[in-house]
Amino acid sequence: MIKTERGTTEIKGENSEILTDFEMTGRAMKEVLIREMGEEKAIEEWKKVIENSEKSVEERTKEITERIAEEIKEGIRKMLKGEK
Fold first, then answer.
1. End-to-end distance of the chain based on CA atoms, in angstroms?
2. Closest C-alpha among 5, 40, 46 to residue 28
3. Which residues are CB-neighbours of 46 under 8 A, at least 6 positions away?
4. Is residue 84's pLDDT more than 80?
5. Are 1 and 9 contacting, i.e. CB atoms less than 8 angstroms apart?
6. Rounded-to-integer distance, Cα 84 and Cα 74, Å
7. What is the pLDDT of residues 9-27, one digit of tens each?
8. Mean pLDDT of 41-61
9. CA 20 to CA 14: how far, in whole Å?
10. Which residues are CB-neighbours of 33 under 8 A, at least 6 positions away?
11. Of 52, 7, 45, 13, whose CA–CA distance to 29 is shortest?
12. 2, 25 Cβ separation under 8 angstroms
């Protein structure tokens, strides 16, 4: 059994059950993404998610923090230049 709610994940059961649940959940998620985003964009995003899942929480937090800082800097730069 795999249960995720608000960023917390609980995993219980035999290894075979956990792996099967993961496979089926992944397949369903990919199908929804393809339907909602189109196949090319969905596959691109799917690959990013898989890649990110391999990283540590610390590594992802650092990447996200750096990205947000860059977005803030760019926003301030545009404000100062009078751009939208």
1. 47
2. 46
3. 30, 33
4. no
5. no
6. 11
7. 899 999 999 999 999 999 9
8. 94
9. 10
10. 42, 45, 46
11. 45
12. yes
Q: Helix 15-37 vs helix 39-53: angle between axes, to the nearest 10 degrees?
A: 140
Instruction: Please report where in the chains the tokens 């075979």 appear, as a residue.
Output: 16
Strands 2-5 and 8-11: antiparallel
For residues 39-54, one letter each, b for 16 or more C-beta atoms within 10 angstroms of the residue's C-beta and e for the rest, the string is eeebeeebeeeeeeee
If one counts every other C-beta atom within 10 angstroms of the C-beta of residue 82, the result is 6
Distance CA(38)–CA(21), nearest Å, equals 25
